[in-house]
Amino acid sequence: MKKGRRIAAVFLMFILLTGISGCGVNQKSPEGVVKSLIEAYGDDSAKNARKCFGSKESDKETEAEIEASIKYIQAHQTDKVDLLECGVIEDYGKYSYVYITYNLVLDKKKEYPCIGTYMVKKSDKKYYIMSSKEITQEISEQASTAYASFMNTEPYQDYSKAYEKFIKQNPGYEERISEKL
Question: What does the alpha-carbon distance between residue 44 and residue 47 come to, in Å, rounded to a whole number?
Fold first, then answer.
């Protein structure tokens, strides 16, 4: 019986450790890669963010975007990033337009609501965030139209209400963050 308990304990420890350590980047779905990107930004992991874009070394624009996004989250002095909702706004076949809502959990247990949208492409059975160089005028126009419709959905309206509430309760917050950047 002791041997059985020991095996069970080892198995349980293995499950806990693999669950806690995470596996890096989820590229199995458009939503998975977007969630991984936001988590990478929150974890200050430029390496994992680059993987979301599909490269170990990215172009200067993408590197600047990664660096700016990480600095933005750091400026908030977050305890963690709490992912809320993520979904495809529009699927265009070769690529998808994806939204994500999340909260930056701040040091005083406040939550700063955030929303982001990303174009995601599929390549070799994996999904990647499209770099700004890959987004054509046509794709940009499609995204603009899709976003206008998305603004009428429940996820967007929930985000908008939470954001307005935060801003009313924390006047001047965004100005203080801007000064840090």
Answer: 9
The pLDDT tens digits for 100-117 are: 999 999 976 799 999 999
**What's 23's DSSP letter?**
-
- CA-nearest of 116, 150, 121 to 39 is 116
Q: Which pLDDT tens digit goes with each residue over 44-99?
A: 899 999 999 987 666 788 898 999 999 999 999 998 999 999 999 999 999 999 99
Closest among 101, 92, 141 to 121, alpha carbons compared: 92
Handedness of CA 46, 180, 101, 16 (dihedral sign): positive
Q: What is the pLDDT of residue 2?
A: 53
DSSP E strands in the chain: the ranges are 78-91, 95-106, 111-123, 126-129
DSSP 56: S
As given in the structure block, the two tokens for residue 159 are 């985000």
Angle, CA of 133, 30 and 156, to the nearest 5° = 90
Element (H, E) at 143: helix 137-150
Strand partners, 117: 99
Closest CA to 36 of 145, 94, 147, 120: 120
pTM, full prediction: 0.82
Tokens of 16: 């806990």
Q: In what order do the strands lie in the sheet with 95-106?
A: 78-91, 95-106, 111-123, 126-129
